[in-house]
Task: inverse folding
């Protein structure tokens, strides 16, 4: 079967689901989620067929699965859009399809499908729970179904469309379309509980912050299109086009067009993948429902930023001088800095989801740094494994929150924050499946040696950094790996180990199968996804399973990059930091009694406060950006410019015209025009009045007057004629 | 032969008589009669001038005949108006018919 037509079809079923749910089946919950999941499963099936076909195709990099159609004529050329699956696209398609499917199924349980409606639930707020009677007549407080259940599935279907479109597209423009659709869905879903003020603010914040990056990215696309007349990867990243771009100087002295476009595109990545300094939106995005956090803000959308720079790697490396450039150095710096920076913040967060959010920023920083040091295969590998284990962790945290919320309903103490890890503890006994899967995800995140996927991908990045001599990046990443292991151990210990620190945690219970099944599925991937990329020279295991990933994805650029020579230093480092971090975290947090402060707070002192407040970045942005912009918008533009200047000018014109009009009326219209008219009328009247006496109506008087006239005129004529000679 | 001026003097006297009648008489019928006198005075002039100045041309007589005809018509119309006035106001005094007074 030819795969090209299938490729076109992959993104479409979720779009159909979106429209059908929104237009027709909104009020019908079961039908809505059946449609969403069913149509997504069609996409998933198509994606798997394409993936299997792609893997079997020899020389996929040179002859990718692709087809294109003309979209619109632009002057003398035609803009074509099309679909393309090369090795990188195939791998991305694989993890996107799987995580989408898992999270769709999970959402059914997460939104309490099958539970009664709560009496006090309103759309736009999380459900408050409902009372239900059991057979013996006892009233129970149980979770209630989400009021906007169908809308959620409509939105995530639209999101799935956007993500799949991004993956299958063969040019930067349709990629950007998918990118923006996801941005919109991210906004809609963060603000899904729009009744909460914090969610509303977070949605706007996320939308506006990513918009900053997107505008630069669009400029990058415009630059590329203006220079080359195409946005298709195959043409754009061909040697001739790249060589031309490198030779063309840009508007900024010292930067070639290629470097400028690369920088602008990278700005898009910074926004979308929440890298410093545009990282502030991602932690706040945790206001959305947990499946959204897992789907959009961990596995797929934020990965799209990394996907973009991996995709544009030829552009970034074009015209390298001595294997390094300003763009790449900047990318490596931003990535490594974000990785370190976010990992430190994660140490001091108590909200289970916020820890994961900062961890996501940190891990994305890893990938960005990997691209920056030229290890794009390692970046793609970490992208793949991270998507699985981070989605797993988020879904696990959602399950935990759900379980603790159940305890909250049971105890009736609604003051307990179901997301605060210091209210948890001992959940391993109450929620065994969630515990086991979360443990796998956590170990993968911290790079637990040999058995987890995270170890292999993280190790590859570290090995590349070391092998290519980027020692600063290597040390930064190794340190953040240590911190990652530490906060992961902290999270697992506080949540699952020890004794329950609240009544709610004591009465938590395991989630329904629709939530646990995706956890199990993802935990399989969180382990097995690493096996495809075991380096060949790895002692003992190397070569048992061929390093398929490296060959497959590495061939995307035509020439597979050489695998770095094996070195024990990065390997020992990564094993060492993972185990040390995990061990330390467990030691510090294994006995935290209820109500006790964070042991780290005492040890770190003011530094801990700094970390807890996220280095005051929100406050900093508030002072240097948000308030000046508010002032600019409300006071300067609205009050001064709009109300004062523009309205003033308009009112001035109006008043001037009014004054001029009344002046004309008083000075010209009334005295001259009206006066003339009145004068004619009045004088005619006056003349008539004075001549009236002549009109006696008596014929004989008229005759007499006539006679007198004749006599006078006759005499006059006579006299005059007599004067004449 | 009687000189032309005698005719003219008679005609002028007759005209003045008629004019006086028109202006001074109160009775409408008398006013009408005054008008007839004035017309005939003119006729006298016309015929006299014809006879003395241009006897070869007939225009003077023709004028006179036409004045007769017009005078007859005028008398008919004038009397009809007077009857109508009498029917309306029960009077034939010209001064009392002042409906057109301004």
Result:
């Amino acid at each position: 079967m030819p795969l090209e037509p299938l490729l076109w079809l992959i993104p479409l079923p979720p779009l159909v689901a979106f429209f059908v749910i929104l237009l027709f089946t909104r009020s019908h919950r079961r039908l809505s989620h059946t449609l969403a999941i069913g149509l997504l499963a069609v996409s998933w099936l198509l994606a798997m067929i394409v993936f299997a076909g792609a893997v079997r195709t020899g020389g996929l990099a040179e002859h990718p699965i692709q087809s294109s159609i003309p979209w619109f004529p632009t002057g003398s050329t035609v803009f074509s859009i099309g679909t393309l699956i090369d090795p990188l696209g195939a791998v991305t398609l694989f993890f996107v399809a799987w995580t989408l499917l898992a999270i769709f199924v999970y959402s059914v349980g997460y939104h309490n499908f099958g539970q009664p409606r709560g009496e006090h639930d309103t759309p736009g707020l999380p459900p408050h729970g409902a009372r239900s009677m059991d057979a013996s007549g006892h009233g129970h407080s149980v979770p209630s179904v989400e009021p906007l259940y169908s809308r959620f599935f409509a939105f995530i279907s639209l999101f799935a469309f956007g993500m799949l479109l991004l993956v299958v597209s063969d040019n930067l423009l349709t990629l950007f379309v998918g990118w923006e659709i996801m941005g919109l869905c991210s906004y809609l879903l963060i603000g899904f509980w729009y009744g909460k003020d914090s969610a509303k603010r977070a949605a706007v914040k996320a939308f506006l912050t990513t918009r900053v990056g997107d505008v630069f990215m669009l400029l990058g696309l415009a630059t590329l299109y203006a220079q080359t007349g195409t946005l298709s990867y195959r043409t754009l990243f061909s040697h001739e086009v790249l060589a031309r771009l490198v030779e063309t100087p840009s508007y900024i002295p010292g930067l070639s067009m290629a470097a400028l476009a690369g920088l602008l595109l990278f700005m898009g990545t910074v926004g979308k993948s929440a890298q410093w300094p545009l990282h502030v939106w991602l932690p706040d995005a945790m206001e959305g429902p947990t499946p959204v956090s897992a789907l959009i803000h961990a596995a797929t959308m934020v990965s799209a930023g990394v996907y973009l720079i991996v995709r544009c790697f030829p552009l970034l490396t074009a015209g390298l001088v001595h294997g390094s450039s300003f763009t790449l150095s900047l990318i490596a710096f931003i990535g490594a800095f974000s990785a370190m920076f976010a990992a430190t913040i994660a140490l001091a967060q108590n909200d289970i989801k916020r820890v994961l959010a900062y961890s996501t920023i940190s891990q994305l920083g890893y990938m960005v740094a990997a691209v920056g040091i030229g290890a794009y295969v390692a970046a793609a590998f970490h992208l793949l494994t991270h998507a699985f284990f981070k989605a797993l962790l988020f879904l696990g945290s959602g399950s935990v929150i759900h379980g603790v919320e159940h305890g909250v309903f049971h105890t009736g103490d609604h003051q307990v924050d179901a997301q605060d890890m210091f209210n948890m503890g001992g959940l391993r006994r109450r929620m065994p499946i969630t515990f086991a899967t979360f443990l796998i995800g956590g170990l993968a995140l911290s790079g637990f040696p040999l058995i987890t996927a995270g170890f292999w991908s993280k190790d590859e990045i570290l090995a590349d950094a070391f092998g290519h001599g980027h020692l600063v990046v290597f040390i930064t990443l190794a340190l953040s790996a240590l911190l990652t292991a530490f906060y992961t151990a902290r999270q697992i210990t506080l949540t699952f180990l020890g004794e329950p620190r609240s009544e709610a945690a004591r009465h938590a219970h395991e989630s329904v199968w629709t939530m646990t099944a995706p956890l199990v599925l993802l935990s399989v991937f969180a382990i097995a996804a690493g096996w495809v990329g075991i380096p060949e020279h790895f002692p003992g295991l190397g070569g048992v399973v061929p390093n398929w990933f490296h060959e497959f994805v590495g061939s995307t650029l035509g020439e597979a990059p050489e695998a770095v020579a094996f070195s024990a230093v990065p390997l020992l480092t990564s094993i060492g930091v993972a185990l040390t971090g995990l061990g330390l975290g467990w030691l510090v947090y294994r006995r935290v009694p209820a109500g006790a402060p964070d042991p780290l707070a005492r040890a770190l002192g003011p530094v801990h406060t700094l970390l807890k407040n996220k280095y005051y970045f929100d406050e900093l942005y508030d002072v240097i950006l948000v308030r000046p912009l508010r002032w600019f918008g409300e006071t300067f533009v609205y009050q001064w410019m709009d109300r004062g200047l523009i309205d003033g000018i308009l009112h001035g014109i109006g008043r001037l015209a009014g004054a001029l009009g009344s002046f004309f009326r008083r000075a010209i219209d009334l005295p001259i025009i009206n006066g003339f008219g009145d004068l004619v009328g009045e004088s005619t009247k006056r003349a008539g009045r004075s001549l009236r006496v002549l009109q006696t109506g008596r014929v004989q008087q008229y005759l007499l007057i006539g006679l007198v006239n004749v006599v006078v005129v006759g005499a006059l004529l006579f006299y005059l004629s007599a004067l004449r000679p | 032969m009687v000189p032309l001026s005698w005719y003219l003097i008679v005609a002028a006297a007759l005209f003045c008589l008629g004019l006086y009648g028109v202006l001074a008489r109160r009775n409408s019928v008398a006013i009408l009669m005054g008008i007839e006198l004035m017309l005939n005075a003119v006729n006298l002039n016309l015929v006299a001038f014809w006879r003395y100045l241009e006897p070869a041309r007939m225009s003077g007589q023709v004028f006179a005949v036409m004045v007769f005809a017009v005078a007859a018509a005028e008398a008919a119309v004038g009397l009809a108006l007077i009857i109508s006035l009498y029917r309306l106001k029960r009077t034939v005094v010209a001064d009392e018919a002042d409906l057109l007074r301004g």
